[in-house]
């Protein structure tokens, strides 16, 4: 963009002085100027200072182009993500996408660790690993359904893709399994695409067949700038066929009106976006509070049920001698529900040595220590400590699901892990972790 602006400015100066004789530069033509789609004749000033004015305009645009990227170098994480966030209204839902670019790693590390944070240190490597920045383009997809009718996006790879300027459609490599189910309320998850080096636009095809194109504010601003630059170039071409003396006023007026128009449009769009983001943030906070309350109630109900099961009262017939109850025959080792609860409890503490003791004999042959288990969790991008409100969902048979909320950057995502249970001669064990 910088090179295009500088090139067009210098090229036009060279062309003008090659094409227009010196003795014709003071003529005063009347030219057509197109604004809002309506052509009109504009009144122009004398052109005796046309060359000097064009030179000043070229210098100003070149300086603007050269300094335009300096602000990005000191941008905060919020500024970067604001430029890579876009939303779209569907038939019965609101959808927004956030692209996590590689440029956010350095300011994010400095924000978390202070000014002395190492942009290439362990914290940066963990963030890059979590977002798979080395070989993927991570996009956070959020869907908020506001009616009772569920939103169906499966199969997601056929509905959600990245479109390049050349028209290529890049499909997801992997994504959260929540998008394979009908969605109600708020649903969020990361979608990983193959790494894309150039510009792209996310596109989602809604269940009704409507194509939702997410243009990021950063891309929209660049597009508007290119369109305005193209308009200016077309005006220059038309003006060159007329008397050169009137061109000085035309260029000044076109530049001023184009800048005011772009600024007005940008402020209006930014204001709308801020209002929508505030609404979405308020809805997100409300849903988060409801979810926390529901999880707390579920945990309390589970504790009450366990306490009631442990306090079953003994019975004795009237007038009969009370005999000590014969001890119940218990299965050796841990029970099915017990081993799952013990494994999750130690996971909340981050005690991988104790967790390794609950693994099945076959799995312990592969994972020989708590540190090996910790490495496996890192490879699967699982937290080293579960949140306190994590809960166990019984799937029946030989499997349970551990459901927990994971917070990454500014987004709270609901995740789950499947624990396969194995029954051996010495009781129940954890046989698999998926």
How would the blueprint of this fold be written?
Layout: H1 2-19, E1 31-35, E2 38-42, H2 50-67, H3 70-73, H4 77-83, E3 85-89, E4 93-99, H5 105-113, H6 122-131, E5 136-145, H7 156-159, E6 160-163, E7 169-170, E8 174-175, E9 186-194, E10 201-205, E11 211-213, H8 217-240, H9 247-310, H10 336-349, H11 352-357, H12 361-366, H13 370-379, E12 391-394, E13 399-408, E14 411-424, E15 427-433
Antiparallel strand pairs: 1-2, 3-4, 4-5, 5-9, 6-7, 6-10, 8-9, 10-11, 12-13, 13-14, 14-15
Helix pairs in contact: 1-2, 1-8, 5-6, 8-9
How would you explain this protein's 3D organization?
The chain is α+β, with helices and mostly antiparallel strands and 434 residues long. The chain has 3 domains: 132 residues, no CATH class; 131 residues, Immunoglobulin-like (Sandwich); 98 residues, NTF2-like, domain 1 (Nuclear Transport Factor 2, Chain: A), CATH 3.10.450. It is 45% helix and 21% strand. The protein is built from 13 helices and 15 strands. The strands form 4 sheets. A 5-stranded antiparallel sheet has the order 3-4-5-9-8. A hairpin with a 5-residue loop joins strand 6 and strand 7. Helix 1 runs antiparallel to helix 2, helix 5 crosses helix 6 and helix 8 packs antiparallel against helix 9. The longest helix has 64 residues. The relative contact order is 0.10.
């Amino acid at each position: 963009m910088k090179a295009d602006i500088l090139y067009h400015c210098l090229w036009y100066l060279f062309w003008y002085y090659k094409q227009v004789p010196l003795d014709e530069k003071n003529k005063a033509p009347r030219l057509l100027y197109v604004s809002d789609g309506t052509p009109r004749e504009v009144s122009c000033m004398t052109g005796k200072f046309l060359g000097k004015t064009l030179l000043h305009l070229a210098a100003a645009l070149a300086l603007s182009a050269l300094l335009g990227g300096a602000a990005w170098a000191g941008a905060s994480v919020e500024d970067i993500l604001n430029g890579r966030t876009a939303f779209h209204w569907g038939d019965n839902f609101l959808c927004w996408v956030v692209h996590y670019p590689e440029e956010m790693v350095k300011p994010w590390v400095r924000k978390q660790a202070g000014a002395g944070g190492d942009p290439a240190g362990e914290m940066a490597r963990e963030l890059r690993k979590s977002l798979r920045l080395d070989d993927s383009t991570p996009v956070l997809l959020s869907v908020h359904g506001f009616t009772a009718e569920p939103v169906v996006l499966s199969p997601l790879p056929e509905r959600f893709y990245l479109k390049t300027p050349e028209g290529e459609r890049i499909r997801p490599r992997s994504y959260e399994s929540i998008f394979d189910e009908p969605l109600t309320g708020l649903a969020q998850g990361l979608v990983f695409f193959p790494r894309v080096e150039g510009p792209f636009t996310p596109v989602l095809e809604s269940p009704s067949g409507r194509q939702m194109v997410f243009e990021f504010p950063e891309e929209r601003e660049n597009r508007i700038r290119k369109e305005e630059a193209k308009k200016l170039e077309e005006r220059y071409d038309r003006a060159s066929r007329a008397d050169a003396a009137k061109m000085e006023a035309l260029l000044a007026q076109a530049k001023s009106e184009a800048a005011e128009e772009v600024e007005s449009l940008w402020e209006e769009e930014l204001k709308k976006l801020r209002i929508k983001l505030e609404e979405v943030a308020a809805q997100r906070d409300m849903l988060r509070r409801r979810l926390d309350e529901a999880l707390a109630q579920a945990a309390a109900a589970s504790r009450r049920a366990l306490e009631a099961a442990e306090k079953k009262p003994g019975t004795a017939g009237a007038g009969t001698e009370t005999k000590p109850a014969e001890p119940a025959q218990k299965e050796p080792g841990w029970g099915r529900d017990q081993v799952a609860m013990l494994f999750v409890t130690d996971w909340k503490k981050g005690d991988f040595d104790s967790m390794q003791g609950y693994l099945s004999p076959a799995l312990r042959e592969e994972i020989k220590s708590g540190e090996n288990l910790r490495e496996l969790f890192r490879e699967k991008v699982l937290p080293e400590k579960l949140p306190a409100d994590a809960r166990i969902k019984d799937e029946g048979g030989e499997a349970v699901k551990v459901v927990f909320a994971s917070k990454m950057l500014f987004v709270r995502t609901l995740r789950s892990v499947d624990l396969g249970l194995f029954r051996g001669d010495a009781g129940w064990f954890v046989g698999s972790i998926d």
